[in-house]
Amino acid sequence: MPPKRKSAEKEVPVYRRVLLKLSGEALMGRRASGIDPDIAAGVSAQIAEVAKLGVQLGVVVGGGNIFRGIEAGAQGIDRTVADHMGMLATVINSLALQSALERDGVVTRVMTAIEMREVAEPYIHRRAVRHLEKGRVVIFAGGTGNPYFTTDTAATLRAAEIKAEVLLKATKVDGVFDQDPVRNPKAVRFRHIAYTDVLTRNLKVMDATAISLCRDNAIPIVVFNLQVPGNIRRVICGQPVGTRVGGAT
Questions:
Q1: Does residue 246 carry a pLDDT above 90?
Q2: Is pTM beyond 0.85 here?
Q3: Class of 17-245 in CATH
């Protein structure tokens, strides 16, 4: 009899608990604004395959595809009001992502920093951790609940609170470059870069507050291209995807 073929080796995650940061723009595809259902479904499929690996996953979604507080503030709307409007936009995106995930059979909870019990749970740290331990994907909406803070900072704060082992920053490019890769095709991608170098070079990976918070809490950041299907799984399984900020080389 011919020898039996060995089954494909199962991928093993190298992280137990992860915080994924998605920009609002990641959900709009090629639209000028709003949410592209096909894009949301694609993101959901990537998250679902990670959830099946047993990884505890928290997600923070921005609101820039609907409303951006900083830009509105510059146009004359009071900055505090504008930022609260931006926080509400993150709730809309979070509910859309929750709907897509539940269609894929993933149990989720949306937790908001601004209380709105009719649509989501209020953010309570211990409850969030309990959801993660039960295998539910937790989507953190409403930013930090305070104006003058970005969703990057909110993601870093939640990562620290839930003791995430890594923060995944999903973008439209393949990692962190020494120059804008859209404007300069010869830009060089870093495989690893220190927090301090990101700050001193002003590389715009995340805002300075978020980078500093990650540095102070020793939370590594992996910046990668969300538009490549399967990249979330690859990063979580330790494959050399994107750029690692901080942590061991």
A1: yes
A2: yes
A3: alpha beta
